[in-house]
Specification:
The chain is mainly beta. The protein is 0% helix and 54% strand. A hairpin with a 2-residue loop joins strand 9 and strand 10.
């Protein structure tokens, strides 16, 4: 079992930056792919970014590529999402996800990000 706790959300103006954190209750490096998703009001949850189990590979949704960066601090069992050049359409609840395989994954409770125009 892995508990995930997100933090760092808030209200920011367009063009600003935020850094989200996701603290895991135990070591995930080497076993889990860590992902960020987001869900805007009235929309389905969508993939944002992934860092694989080794930490060597990252993937991004086209909508955030070049603006967001996913990273990990393995000593702290924490994954980050640095979000720059934020846009109003980035407004959503952001969720952290740890996935070991198709049968084993965990979600955080989410953190709200609101970008004002």
């Amino acid at each position: 079992q892995v508990q995930l706790v997100e933090s760092g959300g808030g209200l920011v103006q367009a063009g600003g930056s935020l850094r989200l954190s996701c603290a895991a209750s135990r070591r995930t490096f080497g076993s889990y792919a860590m992902r960020w998703f987001r869900q805007a009001p009235g929309k389905e949850r969508e993939f944002v970014a992934l860092i694989n189990w080794s930490g060597r590979s990252t993937y991004y949704a086209d909508s955030v590529k070049g603006r967001f960066t996913i990273s990990t601090d393995n000593a702290k069992n924490t994954v980050y999402l640095q979000m720059n050049s934020l846009k109003p359409e980035d407004t959503a609840v952001y969720y952290c996800n740890a996935r070991r395989d198709t049968m084993t994954q965990y979600w955080g409770q989410g953190t709200q990000v609101t970008v004002s125009s």
